[in-house]
Amino acid sequence: MTATTVMLVDDHLVVRAGLKALLDSQPDIEVIGEADSGEQAVDMAVELGPRLVMMDLALGAGIDGVEAIRRIRAACPTLPVLVFTTYDTDADVVRAIDAGAIGYLLKDSAPQEIFAAIRGAVAGQSVLSPPVASRLLQQMRRPDEALTAREAELLTLLAEGLTNKELGKRLFISEATVKTHLAHIYAKLGVDTRAAAVSVALRRDGIR
């Protein structure tokens, strides 16, 4: 089995060491590089070519995590970047996703949530920590929103990184019905990707 290669970006050595030890406990995940600044992260991402970058947002002096994500995505368009941070405001989530992050994970996530997020991100699934996804659902349930209750529910599950098949099982509907709901959601939000749908939803209420 080929391991998923991961690069860690955090300006705290202790955090990187702890996360590396945790990830290295999994046979299918391998940490191949560590960066402590945004500039170093961009250079190392290009040089090492990992399958995933885990990025903190606050990186001390120099460019922050959001700008590092933007530059990494510009240099390596197919390289997914998963945010791993303590910052959980809607504004931070929106900025990160707009910059190109595939997901947003909080540092207090359980180990199994972290492993699942990494595997999902590498598979192209958008992932949000449960607290962030929960706030998304609350926003989308506002009565004046264009989405129906079922569409809002599906969008929240979408943010958890579920596949169409998994969405169907969770909601007890067929994959064809899931695709129809997704098409309606994308049309209503004016987007064409899962990550963009989550970003637009979080930006509502004037959040920037």
UniProtKB/TrEMBL annotation:
Task: State the source organism's domain of life.
Answer: Bacteria
Modification 4-aspartylphosphate occurs at: D56
Database matches in CDD domains: LuxR_C_like, REC_NarL-like
Instruction: Please state every residue range assigned to the domain named HTH luxR-type.
Output: 140-205
Q: Does the keyword Phosphoprotein apply?
A: yes
Name the UniProt key words of this record, in alphabetical order: DNA-binding, Phosphoprotein, Transcription, Transcription regulation
* Pfam families in the cross-refs: GerE (PF00196), Response_reg (PF00072)
The protein in question is named Response regulator transcription factor
| Domain annotation Response regulatory: ranges | 5-122
Q: Give the species.
A: Rhodococcus oryzae
Known InterPro entries for this protein? CheY-like_superfamily, NreC/VraR/RcsB-like_REC, Sig_transdc_resp-reg_C-effctor, Sig_transdc_resp-reg_receiver, Tscrpt_reg_LuxR_C, WalR-like
Protein's UniProt keywords contain DNA-binding: yes
